[in-house]
Amino acid sequence: MKENPMTDNSATTGRSESSGRSDVSAASANEIGVIDRSAAILTALQDSPMTAAEVCRRLGYSKSTTYRLLADLRTHRFIVRDNNGLLRLGPFPGRRSIATTNSVLEHLRTLTSESVQLWVRVGEDRVCVRNVEADHELRVSRSVGTVLPLVDGGSAALALCGPGNPQEFYATKQARVKGTASASVAFTVGGAILALCVSYPLTREPDNVAGAYRAVLGQAAVELKGLLEDSEEFAVLRDIARLALGARRSE
Hints:
The chain is an alpha+beta fold. It has 2 domains: 3-81, no CATH class; 101-249, GAF domain (Beta-Lactamase), CATH 3.30.450.40. The protein is built from 7 helices and 8 strands. Helix 2 (52-59) crosses helix 3. 34% of the residues are buried. One of its GO terms (molecular function) is DNA binding.
């Protein structure tokens, strides 16, 4: 008579443990699914900026799932939405291996709505090694591989001739091209001096250039310095500069 309750309790306990394991397994599977889908979104946006609807179509997720994931990714600054409603890779708080030079430049473009270039000094020249263009029809930009003598001027040239301190801010108007302006800061990596530059037409020049660009340029320069030091990407940037100079000399 006393054995039956014990048997019943044992059976009940067994069913409870089995149910608990199933619940844990289901929760783990759901978490892995969220990570996989979030990674797919970040990979897609690394290829090109997109609207939320375009992300849905490209990845085949439901709207509710996609919008929930996008909201979470924006909250943690993995992605940002620019003035045109396009989603781009964000600055990623702290040091994250997924961050790239382009993602930092793209975030700076989002903040300024203008074209952004990264220049490196090589002797008495500067070479554009990264460029992201503004979404405006009227914009100022330079293609990767452009080589310009430092004596030609411009805010990036001034920054590259300075001490390489991101706190030093430089701005010029019509220094090289009529109707254009730019603002720059410089930083050093492995003995090389690089300049981060925002360029724009004078028709869109802020009333307070330093107020608009000094802080965001300085912050982005510090992030780039940390990202590029002892990295393979810095070696790639130096190769771009070397090849661009070699191509110009062979012309």
